[in-house]
Amino acid sequence: MRSRFAGMLTGAGLLLTLAGGTQAAEVTMNLGWATPLESTYGDLAVKFEELAEKYSEGSVDVKLRCCAQIATEDDAFKALQLGTVDAYFISQNNVSPHWPMMDVFVLPYIFQNSDHLVKVANGPVGDRIREQIKADTGVHLLTFGGPSYRDFFNSKRPINTIEDMAGLKIRVPKNEVMLATFEAFGAEPVPLAWSETPTALQTGTIDGGDNGTSVIREMKFFEFAENLVVLDHFAGFAPVFASDRFMGKLDDAQRDAVLRAAADAGAYHTALKLEEIESIRSWLSTEGGMAMTRPERGPFIAAAQQVQQDFAARRGEAFTELVNAIQEVAE
Hints:
Layout: H1 2-21, E1 27-32, H2 40-55, E2 60-65, H3 73-82, E3 87-89, H4 92-95, H5 114-122, H6 124-137, E4 140-143, E5 148-154, E6 169-172, H7 176-184, E7 188-191, H8 197-203, E8 208-212, H9 213-218, E9 227-236, E10 240-242, H10 244-247, H11 252-285, E11 291-293, H12 298-315, H13 317-329
Parallel strand pairs: 1-2, 1-3, 6-7, 6-8, 9-11
Antiparallel strand pairs: 3-10, 4-10, 5-8, 5-9
Helix pairs in contact: 2-11, 7-12
């Protein structure tokens, strides 16, 4: 009798063990970015956190790490490759030094408009970028996020023609395409890390720069540069990347939850960004006190086309194929 009872306990314990084994272990994801919590990256991060935790039934715990708490944007990609950072927002121009093919998204005027940009990100070209960057670097591109434009600002003078760009000292990320673009526009580009930019602008080391429209407001650059110039010369996204080390911690259900959350949060963010670009420009030119100009783009586009041709010739066949694929989507 005693032996039978002991066997029943053993069997019950085995069932409990098996039942417990079906529950996914909780995984923490530290998601970082360089700007404040209340920013365009923050909007996407908060939505992703909500959905990832919902879809994983709480087994993926997303911790939001704004303001360069866990890395700067300049060194985050390498940290993702090493696995010392779980996930991070990195603009495409800061990916290019580690994966040069990303420069196809940095080329000036490569996108005709926001619709073109969204079609590229959500179509075969976007899928090709995701697959290739994972194969080449081991880093996972979770979502492109919503579209944005880099607006130009400076403390010296309004820009009404391309000739007005002459001699302006413009902060540019350490990206070859962006350096070449501002040289083609007639300015004097100064390669500078993002972390050094606010101080350089305040002290007059640089005359201006360009950033996503929302970032100009979030970082209060309007307090130091009163001239806002809308060129739509660089268009881009709010990409979220994850390390292979982090993705390897997930079981199949958690991985599906994270990818689904990234896709849905990206769609949410796209709708949000399409609505807000012009409203932020309006805010900057009224409450922000900036003088906004919209120069004739013909000369800027002509200069940009030469930059596109130069880089296509320099980077080779695979790069040129991607450029052509992006342009075909617009047709």
